[in-house]
Amino acid sequence: MWTKLDSSPALLNHLFRILHFLGAPRGFQVNWWRFPADRVVAPGAWPTRAEVNGGWTYMGNNQIWMFRDEEWDRVLIHECIHAFKWDTQVHDGTKACLDRALNGTIMMAIFEAATELNAEWLYCIIHSPASDFTGKTWTLQRQWQDEQARQIVTRSAMRSKWTEDTSVFAYYVLKAVLAREMETFLLDWLTGTLNTEYWCDKWSQNAHLFDSDVKTDMPFSTRMSNPAINH
Q: Are 38 and 70 in contact (CB under 8 A)?
């Protein structure tokens, strides 16, 4: 692992605790540059990779890279899902259907919706207090997901068509749609029966839920974990 952790043993312990929880293999490498760059989108602006992404790897790799200090542990989980080959396969026709529904073009990596949803679910498990028997932590995260999805959808209406340079629709909007039936999603994902062919229909059926009059004249955070959960 390459990072500046000498003065923060608690941070290092938390990192290794997560890797142990996820079952990281021996020799797995974490490269971490702790840049103090928070994810914030300017008033009226559209989120780009500069305000969204926090790390990278590829499927089956034995190492990951992270470059932000903000919500680093959520990014760690997300990138581990890629590295451990836990991503889902997307049906061939799903992207074309969503492109038509959005009157635009989204990135190919639609599987990021499932990857990020799983990362946030696992993040909530790790950060839930022992006394959370009612799922309050996940409820807070769901509220954050829906709020961000409404911001994205509202800002998209200000544009001539949907375009993106990173998986904005998958990371924020499609994820929030799938989270509405979280139990079904988890059962399908854990049993290897997740069918992405219906994702386009799910979006069309739920799109109206994200039409709102949210204000876009203020900056908004694009960090994907609710800051209220970070104990």
A: yes
Name every residue whose Cβ is closer than 8 Å to that of residue 130 and which is 6 or more positions away in sequence. Answer: none
Nearest Cα neighbor of 196 from 59, 93, 122, 119 is 93
**Residues found in the chain:** 231
Structure tokens at 79: 């990138």
- The tens digit of pLDDT for each residue in 141-176 reads 999 999 999 999 999 988 889 999 999 999 999 999
b/e burial code for range 92-116 (CB count within 10 A of at least 16 → b): eebbebbbeebebebbebbbbbbbb
Q: Return the closest-CA partner of residue 168 out of 7, 40, 1, 53.
A: 53
Residues 70-102 pLDDT 10s: 999 999 999 999 999 999 999 999 999 999 999
How far is Cα 228 from Cα 231, in angstroms, rounded to an integer? 8
Q: Domain residues of the chain, as ranges?
A: 9-229
For CA atoms 183, 166, 125, 230, give the dihedral sign. Answer: negative
CA neighbours closer than 13 Å in the CB half-sphere of residue 100: 7
Q: Are the C-beta atoms of residues 29 and 61 closer than 8 Å to each other?
A: no
- From CA 24, how far away is CA 105, in angstroms rounded? 35
Q: What does the alpha-carbon distance between residue 186 and residue 118 come to, in Å, rounded to a whole number? A: 8
